[in-house]
Amino acid sequence: MERAIQGMVEKRGAGLWLTHVFMIIGVLVIFFPIWLAFVASTVAQQDIIQPPMPVWPGDQFWVNYKNALFSGVNVPVATMLFNSLVMAVGIAVGKIIISLLSAFAIVYFRFLGRNFFFWMIFLTLMLPVEVRIVPTFEVVAGFGMLNSYSGLIFPLIASATATFLFRQFFLTIPDELAEAARVDGARPMRFFWDIVVPMSRTNIAALFVILFIYGWNQYLWPLLITTDPEMNTIVMGIKQMFPSGDDFAHWPTIMATSILAMIPPVIVVVGMQRLFIRGLVDSEK
Amino acid sequence: MEKRVTFRGWMLPLLLILPQVVISAVFFFYPAGQAIWQSLFIQDPFGLSARFVGIDNFTFLLSDPFYRASFVTTAVFSVLVTLCSMVPALFLAVLADRLIKGSGVYRTLLIWPYAVAPAVAGVLWLFMFNTRVGIISWYLGTLGYDWNYVLNGGEAMGLVVVASSWGRISYNFLFFFAALQAVPRSVIEAAAIDGARFWRRFFTIVLPLLSPTTFFLLVVNVVYAFFETFGVIHTITAGGPQQSTTILVYKVYADGFVGQDLGSSSAQSVILLLVVGLLTVIQFKFIEKRVHY
Would I find Acyltransferase among this entry's keywords (chain B) (predicted)? Predict the structure, then answer.
């Protein structure tokens, strides 16, 4: 009986195979653009500019990747990779630090202006950088932070999401722990370092995954403030590799760069899948 | 919810909260205030003088056919992106949910595109549909279809919609899959015993149970289409042809940085602020509801 009901609900036999077939088709369709980019990064320019291009990898893998990494078009891709890494890690670490501190202050203290600051942080939820680009650009230019890592990082590290996430989590830490710390005469910062931060480890890691990808994939902001190719990030630098005139773009180099641009975030997402899904679900709550 | 046990002192908490407050003030509130302020002025192109014009920038925008067209473009674009990213995701999630074994492997493969930046996704799709070298445009050509998104506004829109939806399928898939796994087996088995077949069960039981997730994803995807697709549009069409893919966010950039029309760009920023505000309110209203659910 049990089996019979299960048979009605879960697919077996032909239906199961059909489900697998549809699933595989879906995965193939979704993967096709990435596959084609990879193929293009392993063939010569001639193979591409005389369409149709091959759909199986060629033998130019090392040539194209070496060319992209160490010569590039405007600047070596290795430089852009480094810039992206600094930006993504800077944004992730910066956001986590300032959010941990402010969430700790909001949850564990009663002080004048607490509500005011809470709402002030809350409001920043509603201001994506895309909406206020011109004035923000002027502020950053005024500080002389164009073409600098601080200019790439600081305007993007204040966001309420991480603060709220930590606030929610801190509220679930048992009061007895803070009580005990107080009875023992521990100072607040001692409690913070010895209890709160270690307990938040998983949340910090999950948030790091999400914020790293957020920072790595930024486009508009680096496009505005990095006029010096030496400071380009890889995600915005790819577009700069296209010639402005009627010339053929050098597709193998561009596609090798595209593949290089997606490797770090893909490693982070696939390698830390559990943390990633947890961070995704938590940060959207 | 509040803590019962708190620490004393006011200096320390202020110091702790200071970094975030300073950064929010300098990079959020001051620029937002500037946007509102500048939206009341008309600046000459060199930024030498500004003339107070009150709400003229807004009234001009609302009567400007290009701006209105951009509103329509944004609406069409976000509806299409939301549909094209949610329907395939739901379909794949339903398939994965029916599998007893192997759904983990598919999930690992399907989350890849989420990690690909919108701008990089734009380059990948541009490559396939490029008028000179694109493999798909070449095959379309052999079928007798003259594909040219550089000249044809509808094709340009289709291309940016597909490129923007692609990475979002992963995201929506993860949420739908999690929601499907949470549907109680007993309810579905009961319906199966009563003789309800798969599609009937899906539409009468599963889909209603998914409605909180669906609504949440609707809002999130509209927000995504509005604000996070700049990279796709900038890499593929740069708003063209004839502004047929100029969504509101792209227009803020095009008018402010390319056209140097600060007053108009600021007024557009202010209008977008209102849109974000509205969407955020909808989102929070929904979250409150979900708590009761």
Answer: no
Nearest to B201 by CA among B214, B211, B212, B187: B187
From the candidates B10, B24, B253, which should be mutated to test the interface with A, based on the most A CB atoms within 10 A?
B24
Q: Does residue B37 sit within a domain?
A: no
Task: State mean pLDDT over A132-145.
Answer: 88
Q: Considering its fold, how many domains does chain A have in total?
A: 2
DSSP H or E run through B41: strand B41-43
Whether pLDDT at B91 is above 90: yes
Residues B113, A135: C-beta atoms closer than 8 Å: no
Taking contacts as CB-CB distances below 8 angstroms, the residues of chain B near A130 are 227-228, 230, 249, 252-253, 272
DSSP assignment of A147-202: TSHHHHHHHHH--HHHHHHHHHHHHTS-HHHHHHHHHTT--HHHHIIIIIHHHTHH
Q: Which two tokens stand for residue B111?
A: 């989350």
**B280 and A125 in contact by Cβ < 8 A?**
yes
Nearest-Cα distance to chain A for B272, in Å, is 6
User: Do A10 and A89 fall into the same domain?
Assistant: no
Confidence at residue B79, expressed as pLDDT on a 0 to 100 scale: 94
B93 by Cβ neighbours in 10 Å (0-12 / 13-18 / 19+) ranks as buried
Chain B residue with CA closest to A101: the answer is B16
Handedness of CA A145, A147, A152, A153 (dihedral sign): negative
- A265, closest residue in chain B (CA to CA): B115
Give yes or no for residue A179 having a pLDDT over 50.
Answer: yes
